[in-house]
Request: fold
Amino acid sequence: MKYVLASNWKANFTLEEAKIWFESIGSKYNEVRNEVRIIAAVPYVYVHYLSSYGIVDVFAQNVSHVKQGAFTGEVTVSMLKSINCKGCIVGHSERRHIFGENDDIINKKILSLQENSMEIIFCIGEKLEERKEGKTKEVLFNQIVNGLKDFERFDLLIVAYEPVWAIGTGVPIEIPDLIDAENFIRKIFKDNFNIDNLTLLYGGSVDKEFVKKIKQETTMNGALIGSASWKPDGFIQIIDNFINA
Reply:
């Protein structure tokens, strides 16, 4: 099984900082590419330039749900494809809860990416109040089934389980709870889509220590990492710890 470590830059990095990151991580990736796939989800403005490095796979962090037209400020899937973007994050909790994206919008984005044969990192996860109310499994089921309505190209799909209450808090999920969530998510895909080889990542306060637990104590395929991956040295440590766990 090939693992995946994906760095989500969010709204960070100048172009010079982006160059330094890619040069450092690109050099490291040459050593480990047979063991782990590295993805960088970068701001739109850097996608074309950073794709030219041809080493780390470049994803966008978001994309419009419309295909083209009079929609000021929107960036479409076909635009991303034309500048060699490999794929896109869809459904991140910050898009869902700050920008109000619902399952219908997320589904439209996913289907548009599928139409263009682009990869998708599909984020799912419950909020703290939903967890406290015992609704975690209901939320995950609805997000998956509604977000993937009419979807067929599961070879393009990576799923990232990111409990909202763990993102950016410094408090990752407890491993027994993560194992329970992983088993439930995999069962949904098996029962509803007949998929038993799902690529499943964990995201939410992932750091250089927690990646070892993901590798050693779960059967997940890697991690979607935020701030801990923004400094090259820090991300290289994460890569090393994950591979050597």
Notes: Residues 20 and 233 are 11 Å apart (CA to CA). The longest strand covers residues 36-42. The mean pLDDT is 96. The radius of gyration is 17 Å.
